[in-house]
Specification:
This protein is 67% helix and 0% strand. It is mainly alpha-helical. The protein has two domains: 143 residues, no CATH class; 177 residues, no CATH class. Helix 1 runs antiparallel to helix 4, helix 5 packs across helix 6 and helix 6 runs antiparallel to helix 8. The radius of gyration is 26 Å and the shape is elongated.
Length: 359
């Protein structure tokens, strides 16, 4: 019987330690550190939301339902931590005080939530209830301090997304962005987007790897999404560099680099496979015909384009290949709204680039 009680106490200590470790990894560590408990909570809750938010629903309704996923995930994670501490100390009290399971549970609950309706006898037990009460307050304090950080990072992200609607439409697209700058006679100043979004990508990489739950926080507008906005800007930079007849723009190149580094870092946390060193002629999800349609629309609008369309296509593929896989994978993971060249293709098989003649 003594051996059983020792094993129960060890199991209780391990359970409490697991809850504290998960909280520290999720909230305290300033880097992406996967916690099995937090991951399991979000995975199980995601399965539930997939049942509730069926693909056959109108997207606006699904978006409203999915908007509750990340906030509820945080609440469920806190509840899981508290439940584990409650269960762990129940085991510890049973193994050390030789009380029944009901008495141990009552004592653990009273201590965790600082209710004080049950008091043990003995210095050791009193020390344990103090420890459990401190842990409960610690977990609640962590979440209270965690939420403002989440809210601040979310607000910074959404300011950029909302501002992009003015330049790239809703849902955003590279074609719309380039066309609007041309219609307003400001195409030569499109570099202002690249400088602004280079900083945006750096901020998103830092916040979404430190707090990965941010990836699932949905925008207030159904057509807005951080991942489709990122795709529109990256495609805009890639199209401008490869196809629009403008002087070389180093800011666009830096924007693409900061963008794909950001998306790859987030994809790495979610264990999304991708090639860190793709070849310029590796397959991408965009077909030559789709690119031709966009180029034709820009040409009809009078946008100055590079004369060698085959080379322009090759150059576009060479830029797009850096972020193609992670972009569409993250769009599928977050169930983003439909947007050109990102969420509109889901996880379709990669198609090799076609270097044929322009139509």
């Amino acid at each position: 019987m003594l051996a059983l009680r020792i094993l129960v106490v060890v199991a209780g200590v391990a359970t409490v330690a697991a809850a504290i470790g998960s909280a520290v990894k999720t909230v305290v560590l300033p880097r992406a550190s996967a916690s099995r408990i937090t991951r399991s909570v979000f995975v199980l809750l995601r399965g539930l939301f997939r049942v509730i938010a069926r693909p056959s629903m109108r997207f606006e309704r699904r978006d409203r339902i999915l908007g509750a996923y990340a906030p509820l995930g945080l609440i469920a994670t806190l509840a899981t931590w508290l439940a584990l501490v409650l269960a762990g100390f129940t085991l510890i009290f049973w193994g050390t005080d030789h009380e029944g399971w009901r008495a141990s549970f009552d004592l653990s609950g009273s201590s965790l939530f600082t209710l004080g309706f049950t008091r043990p006898e003995g210095l050791g037990s009193t020390a344990l209830i103090f420890a459990e009460a401190a842990i409960g307050l610690f977990l609640l304090a962590l979440l209270v301090t965690y939420l403002p950080s989440i809210d601040a990072a979310f607000s910074r992200r959404e300011v950029g997304i909302t501002a992009l609607e003015v330049r790239a439409g809703s849902p955003p697209s590279a074609r719309e962005m380039i066309w609007r700058y041309w219609q307003l006679g400001r195409l030569a100043e499109i570099h202002e987007v690249w400088a602004e979004w280079e900083r945006w990508f750096v901020d998103v990489e830092e916040s979404h790897t430190s707090h990965p739950t941010l990836a699932f926080f949905r925008s207030s507008h159904p057509d807005h999404s951080w991942i489709t906005a990122a795709g529109a800007v990256l495609d805009g930079a890639a199209l401008t560099l490869s196809s629009v007849d403008l002087p070389r723009d180093v800011k666009a190149e830096f924007c693409i680099r900061s963008g794909y580094l950001c998306l790859r870092a987030i994809a790495d946390y979610f264990q999304i496979a991708h090639d860190p060193n793709p070849r310029p002629d590796d397959p991408i999800s965009i077909g030559r015909d789709e690119w031709n349609d966009v180029i034709a629309a820009l040409d009809d609008a009078g946008v100055p384009l590079k004369p060698d369309r085959d080379q322009a296509w090759r150059d576009f593929v060479g830029w797009r290949v850096n972020y193609d896989r992670v972009l569409i994978s993250l769009a599928a993971l977050t169930e983003a709204p439909m947007a050109l060249w990102s969420s509109d293709r889901g996880m379709v098989p990669m198609r090799p680039p076609v270097f044929g003649r322009n139509r």
